């Protein structure tokens, strides 16, 4: 019998009421109580839900951009709009809360300062300090010096309190300073060129074509992570899953579009816009990851209350299918969904014993979807480590993606759940891959 995972800080990605959430997502509460998500109109004329707009602008900041762009698909131009607008317009259109304004202005200030001077946060007080002498690694923090009454200096390289000579210092005396950092746990094992060459020779017609690593290749991954909810418990620990997946996808050669805290409408709009990205034409595959509370009817938006604000997983396939996503036609599309699908426990007691002429294509093909649990059951999340589903995927991919195709990787994930997480079992759904999909990391 497996031990109850809740005892180790686990909770379900289901749906009880949370008081803390009301402190964060109050900006659209009034409109949602009226039964609608707040929608704003950008300078380009495109409508966008407020939650999607804020999530997109935060993503732009994460990409070190100090000007935002419209992410909506333009029906007339048949491409993503991309019209830019400054922070001032965002404030006018979105009516940001004080908390959000502080977030945006702090990040924008840091981006602006980075263009004007060389600066880093002091390890003592976290205030940003400029390095005036580019030839000296020893930098003095005036704030820490004033607070302590003693001169406080730190190393620009390793960001630890300074040790060693301070005049024209090219290195400090801290252990390990200047040496290459050791990779964190679960490093991605890279594929050897010989393995890829051998696979392609032996199974060429049974493997999806994969573009060799080069600047022209434009792989995209969409990651939607709902953490803060208006009525439901916040998904503490989900930020760990986000970081783990971002690192994995970047290692696999994908540019990750990460959007947090979306309503059902926001998720639907984000999926539609993602499906129309021009980069797909220069890609060989894509990943889409959803992490949220959920139920049998779908994925919960951040305003979910009872049966309201639910995004149907069918719409993921609809937006990426043969008809609606030409850029990914005949290319593998991998979908990962972390959410509950009901309230039942999954365990039971048992005894030991290009341009071509028109032709017919199936509407839904080249998909592979792995969900975190079977229908009607719960999915567990550790509030400190993240979900076992995402963390196990990252671990398995890091260790075996250099040699196994995607369905074998998923089989290994299921095997690990059977052996170590018996109360939950992921399952594949709507898998229509006709060939083996190898990721060939590093190549």
UniProtKB/TrEMBL annotation:
<dbReference type="GO" id="GO:0072559">
    <property type="term" value="C:NLRP3 inflammasome complex"/>
</dbReference>
<dbReference type="InterPro" id="IPR029030">
    <property type="entry name" value="Caspase-like_dom_sf"/>
</dbReference>
<dbReference type="InterPro" id="IPR016129">
    <property type="entry name" value="Caspase_his_AS"/>
</dbReference>
<comment type="similarity">
    <text>Belongs to the peptidase C14A family.</text>
</comment>
<dbReference type="GO" id="GO:0097169">
    <property type="term" value="C:AIM2 inflammasome complex"/>
</dbReference>
<dbReference type="InterPro" id="IPR011600">
    <property type="entry name" value="Pept_C14_caspase"/>
</dbReference>
<feature type="domain" description="Caspase family p20">
    <location>
        <begin position="217"/>
        <end position="344"/>
    </location>
</feature>
<dbReference type="InterPro" id="IPR002138">
    <property type="entry name" value="Pept_C14_p10"/>
</dbReference>
<dbReference type="GO" id="GO:0006508">
    <property type="term" value="P:proteolysis"/>
</dbReference>
<dbReference type="GO" id="GO:0004197">
    <property type="term" value="F:cysteine-type endopeptidase activity"/>
</dbReference>
<dbReference type="InterPro" id="IPR015917">
    <property type="entry name" value="Pept_C14A"/>
</dbReference>
<dbReference type="Pfam" id="PF00656">
    <property type="entry name" value="Peptidase_C14"/>
</dbReference>
<dbReference type="GO" id="GO:0072557">
    <property type="term" value="C:IPAF inflammasome complex"/>
</dbReference>
<dbReference type="GO" id="GO:0050727">
    <property type="term" value="P:regulation of inflammatory response"/>
</dbReference>
<protein>
    <submittedName>
        <fullName>Uncharacterized protein</fullName>
    </submittedName>
</protein>
<dbReference type="InterPro" id="IPR002398">
    <property type="entry name" value="Pept_C14"/>
</dbReference>
<feature type="domain" description="Caspase family p10">
    <location>
        <begin position="357"/>
        <end position="441"/>
    </location>
</feature>
<dbReference type="InterPro" id="IPR001309">
    <property type="entry name" value="Pept_C14_p20"/>
</dbReference>
């Amino acid at each position: 019998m497996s031990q109850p995972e809740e005892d180790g800080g686990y909770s379900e990605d289901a749906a009880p009421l949370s008081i803390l959430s009301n402190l964060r997502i109050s900006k659209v509460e009034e409109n949602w109580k009226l039964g609608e998500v707040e929608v704003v109109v950008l300078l380009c004329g495109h409508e966008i839900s407020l939650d999607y707009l804020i999530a997109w602008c935060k993503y732009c900041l994460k990409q070190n951009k100090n000007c935002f762009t419209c992410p909506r698909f333009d029906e007339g131009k048949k491409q993503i709009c991309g019209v830019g607008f400054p922070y001032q317009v965002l404030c006018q259109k979105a009516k940001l809360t004080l908390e959000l304004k502080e977030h945006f202005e702090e990040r924008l200030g840091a981006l602006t300062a980075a263009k004007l001077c060389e600066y880093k946060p002091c390890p003592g007080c976290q205030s940003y300090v400029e390095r005036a002498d580019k030839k000296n690694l020893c930098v003095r923090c005036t704030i820490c010096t004033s607070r302590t009454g003693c001169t406080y200096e730190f190393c620009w390289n390793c960001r630890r309190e300074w040790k060693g000579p301070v005049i024209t210092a090219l290195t400090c005396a801290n252990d390990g300073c200047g040496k290459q950092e050791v990779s964190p746990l679960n490093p991605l094992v890279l594929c050897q060129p010989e393995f890829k060459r051998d696979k392609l020779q032996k199974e060429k017609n049974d493997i999806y074509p994969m573009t060799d690593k080069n600047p022209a290749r434009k792989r995209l991954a969409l990651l939607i992570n709902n953490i803060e909810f208006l009525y439901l418990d916040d998904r503490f620990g989900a930020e760990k899953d986000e970081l783990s997946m971002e690192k994995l996808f970047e290692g696999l050669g994908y540019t990750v579009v990460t959007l947090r805290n979306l309503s059902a409408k926001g998720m639907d709009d984000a999926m539609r816009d993602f499906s129309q990205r021009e980069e797909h034409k220069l890609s060989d595959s894509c990943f889409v990851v959803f992490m949220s509370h959920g139920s049998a009817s779908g994925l919960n938006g951040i305003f979910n209350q009872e049966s309201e604000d639910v995004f149907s997983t069918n719409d993921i396939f609809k937006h990426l299918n043969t008809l609606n996503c030409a850029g990914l036609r005949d290319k593998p599309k991998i979908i990962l969904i972390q959410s509950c699908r009901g309230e039942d426990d999954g365990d039971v007691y048992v005894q030991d014993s290009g341009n071509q002429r028109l032709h017919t294509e199936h509407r839904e093909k080249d998909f592979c979807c792995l969900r975190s649990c079977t229908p009607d059951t719960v999915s567990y999340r550790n509030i400190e480590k993240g979900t076992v589903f995402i963390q196990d995927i990252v671990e398995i991919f890091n260790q075996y993606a250099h040699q196994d195709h995607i369905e074998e990787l998923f089989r290994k994930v299921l095997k690990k759940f059977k052996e170590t997480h018996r109360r939950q079992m992921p399952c594949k759904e709507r898998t229509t891959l006709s060939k083996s999909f190898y990721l060939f990391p590093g190549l």
